[in-house]
Design a protein that fits this description.
By secondary structure, this protein is mainly beta. The chain has helices spanning 6-9, 104-114, 153-158; strands spanning 2-4, 16-27, 30-42, 47-60, 67-80, 95-97, 100-102. It is elongated. The N and C termini lie far apart (57 Å).
Length: 163
Amino acid sequence: MHVNVSHLLKEPSGAVRAYEVAERVALEDGPHEVRGSVKLFRTDRGLWVTATLESSARRTCSRCLEESAQPFEMVIDEETQPDDAVMESDGERLKIDDGALDLTEAVRQYFEIAAPMKAVCSPDCKGICIGCGANLNDTTCGCGGVARDPKWGALLELAPSGR
């Protein structure tokens, strides 16, 4: 994901450019459609990049174990400098090389951060039955869903509800 910034780098501080992006970016788990807006501000040292990008990832629901698309948003807000400038840190995510701003590494890193860790297919997902393993979104099970560990049997009988 590259943006031509050669003209912006020749302008004085305070110059602004805005772009709409929609590209397929190759990430570790395959190509993903990334779309959104990128706003570039010329600073005295380089460029300030503000981007709001959207994408989705195929994830397994942590409740029912069905795979579904999980949409999410990435917000990038960083400063970068041309390659010939001295960088303050070695871990730069944004690179300007030959007049082009490369957002690929930043998108890859922000994708990993923004992707849901505990994905659910829908907020009202019922999950799976702990007794028989049936997907409760598709069917109701007749097993009662109570799984008792025999080690705790005597203590469970002492509980007020008899569970």
